[in-house]
C-alpha cells in the first residue's frame, strides 16, 4: 500500500535574532544539531497540518487540522534514535465551510465522537544527509493503523532568540489512501489519494497537554493489530 511522504511540517522562521529582542549573542548549546537531546513539545502556535485531494478532476481543496499536539524524543547526535508521538483531534479539521466541518467530524467520515484522535508514532528514521531523511511510522485513523513513510527536512535547530529555549523545526510531505482507513466515501469521484503537508516547530521541554497527546499515540500503537505493524518491520523501510 502506498503511504509515502505523509504530512509537511515547515518549522517557522526561528525568528529574527536581531529583531530588537536581544543584542547579546546566543549561547551555544551542546549536541550534533546544536541543541540538547531530550523531550521537545509541539509548538502549537507554529505547527500546521494541511491536506489536499483531487475533487472531481477540477480542483485541490486545502483542508487544515487545527488541534495538534505531542512530543519529540530528540537524540541530537544520532537523529535515527529520535522518536515522535503525535495526536490530532479528529473534530479539528477546518474547510472554511461550517457544514462540511461538521460532516467530516460525523460518522460519515472521521466519526470523531467514537474515534476522537488521529495519531502518529515513529518506527524509524533514516538520514539521507544532514538535513533530509525518511521517517517511517504508523498512523491510526478510526482505530485503523497503517504504516507510513515521510520525507522530512530539518529546517533548523537553535536556541530560540525570543523564548530563550532550544527549538527545532521540520517540514514533511507525503500521501495516503483514505480508503485504507474506511474513508472511501465518494471514491473515485473524489480522489482516494490524499496529499499531506506539515510544518512544525518543537520547543524543549514537556507540558501536560503534550505528554497526554504522546500517551494517546502510544496507546493507539499498543492497541493496533500486530499484522499492521509487521508491514514496516518486514519492508526494510528505514533500514
β-strand amount = 35-45%
Q: Could you give me the name of the CATH homologous superfamily?
A: Lipid/polyisoprenoid-binding, YceI-like
Distance between the termini: 18 Å
**What is the residue-mean pLDDT, rounded to a whole number?**
86
SSE run = EEEEEEHEEEEEHH
Query: Could you say what the CATH architecture is?
Result: Beta Barrel
Please report the total strand number as a whole number.
Answer: 11
The profile of the biggest β sheet is:
8 strands, antiparallel, barrel
The unreliable regions are 1-30, 235-239
Q: What is the topology, as strand order, of the major beta sheet?
A: 1-4-5-7-8-9-10-11
Helix proportion? 10-25%
Please tell me what the overall shape is: globular
Please, could you describe this protein's structure?
With 239 residues, the chain is mainly beta. Strands 1-4-5-7-8-9-10-11 form an eight-stranded antiparallel barrel. The protein has helices at 98-105, 208-222, 226-235, and strands at 38-42, 48-52, 62-65, 68-74, 83-89, 93-94, 117-127, 132-141, 144-159, 166-177, 193-204. It has a single domain, classed as Lipid/polyisoprenoid-binding, YceI-like (Lipocalin, Beta Barrel). Helix content is 14%, strand content 38%. The relative contact order is 0.26. It has three helices and eleven strands, in the order ββββββαβββββαα. A hairpin with an 8-residue loop joins strand 4 (68-74) and strand 5 (83-89).
